[in-house]
Every structure is written in structure tokens, then in C-alpha cells.
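Q: Hi! First time doing this. I have a protein sequence and I read that you can turn it into a structure. Is that right? Here it is:
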Amino acid sequence: KRRPGLLPALAASVGILLFMGITGGTPSVVRSGIMCLAGLLATRIHARYDAYSAMGLAMLVLCLLNPLAGGQIGLLLSFLCVLGILLLGPAVSTFASLTATCCGKLYRPVHWALQNMGISFSATLFTLPLQALFLGGISILAPLSSVVLIPLATLLLPLGLLTAILGCIPALSGLARLPALLCGLVAKAMSAFAAGLENAFP
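A: Yes, that's right. Below is the predicted 3D structure, encoded as C-alpha cells:
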């Protein structure tokens, strides 16, 4: 793979660090940020990126910053979700491709739906013990809801980051209204879908 230039890599690193700061440094965001930074570093030095090693590095950093972090349910759920995706992701991709191939012209939408549902299932499967223990139950609607919520969340993250950056620059703060409005609309759509799904399947 072609490695990014120095300036793009630095810009991406700064953006990741800013996002980690803007979101308050929650365990899941810090875990994701450290794994992304490790990936950027690996491409710059022509090293092979290993997601498991990057996840271990993230856990080490989090525990060094806060020795009690290892007992936080949010951190444990985040790491278990990623572990499930890493372990089952290849099988999910193969299944989605083989199944979608049989659908002819519907290959792309079928592959997209199966991929999203499979990834959500992979993440959910590994968190079931913690959900049952700490949250008092498990969600069987997660794979279904992910087909809609994951794409919307993918839009929400860059829009939120753009809003925060523009809002911090006085000369451009007025421009932050548009992405902020879009953020609100996307968040309302996600909330309405989740509420509708809960009402349909109580």
C-alpha cells in the first residue's frame, strides 16, 4: 500500500487527537484514536499493521493513564466489540460476498446489508456476557438496527467534528450552523428509528 505523505499523516494525527479531546477522551474514542495513530505510524515506517497489537497498545496506554480503567464497563465493551469484529470479520465478509453473488444485480445492497448486520452481530456476540451481567439483559435488535444506524452514525461523526472546528474559529463560526443543523437532523433520525424499532418490538 502507498504510504501517506508526511504532511497528510501529521494532519490526520492532529485531527485524531483533536477529536479525542473534543469528545472528552472516553475509553472507546481513545482506543479508536490510538489504533488509528498506530496505523498511521505503521504506514510511515513501512511496518506491518497488526490490529491486535494496536488494541493491546491502546489498553496499555489507557491503564497507564488510569489504572482503574480496566474495570470500566464502557472500556470493556469497546474492546470486546473490536475483538469480535477482528475475529469474525473475515468470515462475515466471505459469507456476505458469496450470498450477494447469488442475487445478481442486487449484489451491492445485499452485500451492504449482510456486511453491516454481520459486523454488528460479531461485535454484539462478544459483549453478551457483559451485557447480561452489568446491564441486566441482551439486545437481539442490534443486528437489525445497525443496517440503518451505522451509516447514519458514519455521517454524524465528521459533521460533528466539522461543527466543532468551525465553532472554534471566530471568523468561521457562522458557517458552523449548517453542519450543526445536519447533525441535529441525523441525530433525530437515529433517535426516531430507534424509538420506532423499540415500539415495534417491545
